[in-house]
Amino acid sequence: MLNKIAISLLPLLMLLVFSLVACFLGYGLFLLFDGAVGLNRIISRVTQALLILSIYPVMRWLNISFAELGFVAYKRFLKQMLAGAVLGIFTLLPVLMLSYALDIIVIDELRHWTFGKVVSSLLVTFLLALLISLLEEPMFRGVLISAYISRLGIVATIFISSFYYAILHFIKTKTTIPIEEAEFLDSFSLLLEAFQNLLRPENLSAFWALLMVGIFLAIMRAHLKLSLAWVVGCHAAWVWQIKMAHKITDVNKSSDLLYLISPYDGVIGPMVAIWLTLVLCAYLGYQQFGSKQGK
Questions:
Q1: Structural domain range at position 139
Q2: Considering the domain boundaries, does residue 11 fall inside one?
Q3: pTM to 2 decimals?
Q4: Is residue 177 a part of any domain in this protein?
Q5: Of 100, 118, 208, 267, which has the highest C-beta tally within 10 A?
Q6: Looking at the domain assignment, is residue 262 inside a domain?
Q7: Considering the domain boundaries, does residue 53 fall inside one?
Q8: Rounded to the nearest 5°, which phi and psi values hold at 172?
Q9: Domain count of the chain?
């Protein structure tokens, strides 16, 4: 039992170590850039870079192959990624449409769009969403699931990988420090503030939604045994739609149903969490019914 707890906490330990290293490196880069980029952003980006760079060494350490990580041949990867993107569109678009129908979000009429701007925005936003997905999925639905599933079991693996995926979105701070006032210890003050952000009550609904997002994607990998391409495509489609929603809509602050979305990004929140919970319950119920029918 204690061994399983220790294994479960290992990613948190790595995150803490990389965050501390990022404080040292971040302050040096902050001075090098003469304060052009905020110290808080540099520390965050360096931490993320260290986590991403750790994927291959961890794979070697745990003897995890690229196939076990979920990668498939290039052509199959593209086809399955496209299929995952279609799934992502159909699993988030209903929530966005319902938010609009309920007047929780409204069209931003101050922005003027041309055909060229629409095409350009769709393409650039999708490429950015795809990049985010390609960086995050090998870590959360790749290494974590491959490392845990034989050690902790499928249920614990799904929950723990999803928990880490969710909390990482909130370890951040918006506090900026002018370079004239910055001191070395400010890096650690910002790091402490970033971790304290996890405890803010207003983040709870967004955490719930992101936890369900993680569980949905983890079930695709760990339970359905789909390749990493599927979750990359699905994740990219979700991020794409969220970013496009930010561009073309505004949150209606006077809506009586405003509690259904989170101030985290104006899209995810209780509505997304409830919707994904219903989708997963419907799938698991159908699977259970099908297994009974087959007996």
A1: 66-187+196-294
A2: no
A3: 0.93
A4: yes
A5: 267
A6: yes
A7: no
A8: -160, 160
A9: 1
